From TrEMBL:
Signal peptide interval: none
Protein's name in the database: Uncharacterized protein
UniProt cross-references to Gene3D superfamilies, sorted A to Z: Homeodomain-like
Keyword entries, A-Z: Activator, DNA-binding, Nucleus, Repeat, Transcription, Transcription regulation
Organism from which the protein derives: Camellia sinensis var. sinensis (China tea)
Taxonomic superkingdom: Eukaryota
BP term (GO), one: regulation of primary metabolic process
One GO MF term attached to the UniProt entry: DNA binding
Cellular localisation: Nucleus
InterPro entries: Homeodomain-like_sf, Myb_dom, Myb_TF_plants, SANT/Myb
DNA sequence: AAGAGAGACAACCGCCTCAAG
DNA sequence: ACTTGAGGCGGTTGTCTCTCT
């Protein structure tokens, strides 16, 4: 790790260290990770503290095996956001799975899904020679200067977001029953899809138009076996039913 | 019972981006 | 314009546990 001070403790965390870190974050809040080791009285580097908190100690972290719907979502989002040209955005995917961390998702993908899915994707690639390249520009976390104009006009920005969300609600049919936690995560995903419109697919012009159509219809349209044959686009996705056989 | 191999997951590493100076 | 340091990311490794022979 770059900048790791000499003599800093490494390896598995002890219960005592966990308690110190938890106490420190509860008192001072998240962030300012460079101060955390000192404030908590830990002989660990800032990155180690941050990782331990985010992946293990943070409240509401869901442990245990992944559910079928979670696996389904991981596969779909990995197709959408990640491919061999760019890094898959595990944090973005994890953001759609309440209680799951990016590390969890990444580990699950590497140990459970990668070996099973990659061969299928390779077959699909051979079937679709027209798909030359998929380019995704994933959003990265940003911190903004206080002087940014659009931050100053907060009211306008919020109004725009509300208008956009209402539009998506109108466009999107009810796709899944509400979850127990009351969070309509599919709905949120549509909103994010709109935000991430930079996700472009360098396919030919006719398919590009279809992509935009599908984008507004929602992610469930992608790979839906009922529209197989409508365009070559569908061929690159594994049929939803195949997922249950994993 | 014991050793080998596979699987699962926690943790580390190196890199990138950005704000601040 | 350049440098520095913090925050954050994905890739990789280390270690523990389980299963099989």
């Amino acid at each position: 790790m770059e900048g790791v001070p000499l003599g800093v403790r490494k390896g598995a965390w002890t219960e005592e260290e966990d308690n110190l870190l938890k106490k420190c974050i509860e008192t001072n809040g998240e962030g300012k990770w460079h101060q955390v080791p000192f404030k908590a009285g830990l002989n660990r580097c800032r990155k180690s503290c941050r990782l331990r908190w985010l992946n293990y100690l943070r409240p509401n972290i869901k442990r245990g095996s992944f559910g079928v719907d979670e696996v389904d979502l991981i596969v779909r989002l990995h197709k959408l956001l990640g491919n061999r040209q760019v890094r898959p955005s595990w944090s973005l995917i994890a953001g759609r799975l309440p209680g799951r961390t990016a590390n969890d998702v990444k580990n699950y993908w590497n140990t459970h899904l990668q070996k099973k899915l990659i061969p299928q994707i390779e077959v699909v690639k051979v079937k679709t020679p027209r798909m030359m390249e998929t380019k995704a520009i994933r959003p990265r976390p940003r911190t903004f200067s206080k002087n940014l104009i659009w931050l100053k006009s907060k009211t306008t920005a919020i109004a725009n977001i509300e208008t956009r969300n209402n539009l998506f609600k109108q466009l999107s049919p009810p796709l899944s029953p509400p979850r127990d936690d009351g969070i309509s995560w599919w709905e949120n995903m549509f909103v994010d899809l709109e935000i991430n419109k930079e996700i472009t697919l360098s396919i030919d012009g006719s398919n590009e138009e279809k992509w935009h159509e599908k984008e507004t219809q929602g992610i469930l349209a992608i790979g839906d076996s009922s529209v197989q044959g409508e365009s070559d686009w569908n061929d690159i996705f594994i049929d939803k039913m195949d997922l249950w056989d994993l």
